[in-house]
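Support reply, case 0932

Customer input (verbatim):
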Amino acid sequence: MWHIQPVADENVEGTLRELYNQDLEKDGYVSNITRAWSYRPEMMALWTQLLKTIRSHLRLRTYELVTLAASRAIGCLY
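Our regenerated output:
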């Protein structure tokens, strides 16, 4: 169940279309994070950079534990 209903595939255009195409070329499908940013696709690059900055200061195991703890705290089963 989506908390944010993404832009319908038939309405995707511009920057969002480029992001969808990148996902399709790389993975063969459009990722959920790309769909979640569908109303503000220009923010996707900023979000990605923020995550890279955070991860660069943490060991992988620490990042995974923080992610798991945050996910459990908000009740996310994904």
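We compared this against your earlier run and they match. Two observations from our side: The mean pLDDT is 92. Residues 14-27 form the longest helix (14 residues). Please reopen the case if you see a mismatch on your end.
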